[in-house]
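Journal club prep, notes for RB
We'll compare a predicted complex against what the paper describes. Inputs for the 1,3-dihydroxyacetonephosphate case:
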Amino acid sequence: MDRKKVIAGNWKMNMTAAEGAQLIADLKANCGGACGCCSAPEVMVFPPFTTIAAVQEAAKGTPLVVGAQNVHWATNGAFTGEISAKMLVEMGVNYVIIGHSERRQYFGETDETVNQRVKAALAAGMKVILCIGETLEEREKGVTEAVLEKQVRWDLADITKEQLENIILAYEPVWAIGTGKTATNEQAQEVHAFVRALIGKMYCPVCAGKIRILYGGSMKPANAEGLLAQPDIDGGLIGGAALKAADFIALVKAAC
Ligand code: 13P
């Protein structure tokens, strides 16, 4: 199955509007005009909400996708500090990251709230990067697959086969995020193959062949080639290395 690779930068709580616009300008200047370097991978950035408009402006005329880092499940209402899909769509934002482990760890997100957010984003016509991943403790206990299966089944509860076409999965082992420790090519491939097979069981073999599964967790130019060469790894969701134009461009090139 031919799956188009994705290189996505999750800027987390980094980059003011001015800094974000400058990063895009640097990407454009060093990317041969269109931010993509080549047409093979889809290239995406996920700035903080307040930086999105400036990044959209800076990215005009390029194929760069500008997405958001989270979305609430209600259309509007008394949810201080939250942003709805309707608000994002109005801004021309069509992609959103949901279920990042930092949201689960520090902000009390559960599989249930993740599922609600996924449903709301899809209902509003958005596409989703859904993050899953095990902690170090879970890996050491040997329950990685059970943890991932629970997350995938809960987070995708009530999601139809047709809706699944608008979802990209991101496997981000929590112990590899921002730690400099990357899963080995083999560790990552093993999990990606497991998740793909699970999608096959939950939906259909064709669905499993079509869905893109990104790896995230200390991906950088030095290790990207090996990870991206794995048959079930369809790209990367990148934190730290997405904040430096030269590194991000090197990652895009590794996916070409
Ligand atoms: P790092 O690349 O900084 O480890 O972050 C990965 C991540 O959490 C992307 O969502």
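Talking point for the session: The radius of gyration is 17 Å.
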